[in-house]
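Re-run requested by the PI after the first attempt was lost when the workstation crashed. Everything re-entered from the original request form. Ligand of interest: 2-acetamido-2-deoxy-beta-D-glucopyranose.
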Amino acid sequence: MAMSGQNLSFGVLLLPGFQWLDAAEPVDYINNHSQAMLQANNLPKEDVEKGPIITWHYISFDLKPVRATSGPTLNPSTTYTDCPPLNYLLVPGGDPNAPLPPGCAEFLKERFEGLKGLLTVCTGSLSVAQTGLLDGYKVCTNKVALKAAHSSGQLNKNVHWVGDRRWILDRKVWSSAGVTAGIDLGAEFARVNFDPMLVELTKMIAEYKPKPDQPDEFAYILDGIDYNN
Ligand SMILES: *[C@@H]1O[C@H](CO)[C@@H](O)[C@H](O)[C@H]1NC(C)=O
């Protein structure tokens, strides 16, 4: 299963007002398994070749910089219409109640079938759920936002929301709970897909021990809330 030497085309959907950390964590963590990063770290050639070759595409409706909630802007590298073929698409959290930007739902619907995986962090899943693509899937999201959407009646009840895990994989949908769970999702994606030696090396470089899906010490946020009904 290790994607050694494979070319991976990875998209990152930049929703207006995205959370910097939601995007940065899994992107940096996954990217640290790539040949480019391994080379930069002066690893021997035979080890570098164990990594995938990752191309990142930052996607928006146009090429204007997209501002994160904390201020920094990110320059999209492509648009919904021009985006090259993708193997994976990552959706960091934005404002879950904001309607998707024009063309975004169409882009997601067009691309979903061809993806090997869709990854969502935090409220990213609530945004994608607006399209109906997650209907019938087991999906994690930010628990505080899930609670708010449930009480305001804005929650898509066709999705099977999961409130007691940091992340979950259902078929090809990888979703994580609030903000920091995104790095654990990235680490799980790496564990499943990349060379085990590189997975260990990346943990050491990041000085991070990825958390499992359960126990989820924040599950209490949804105690007593019947969010799937
Ligand atoms: C990725 O690797 C670089 C170079 O070793 C390191 O500086 C950086 O902190 C790593 N990033 C993550 C998220 O592990």
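Saved to the shared folder this time. Residues 181-193 form the longest helix (13 residues).
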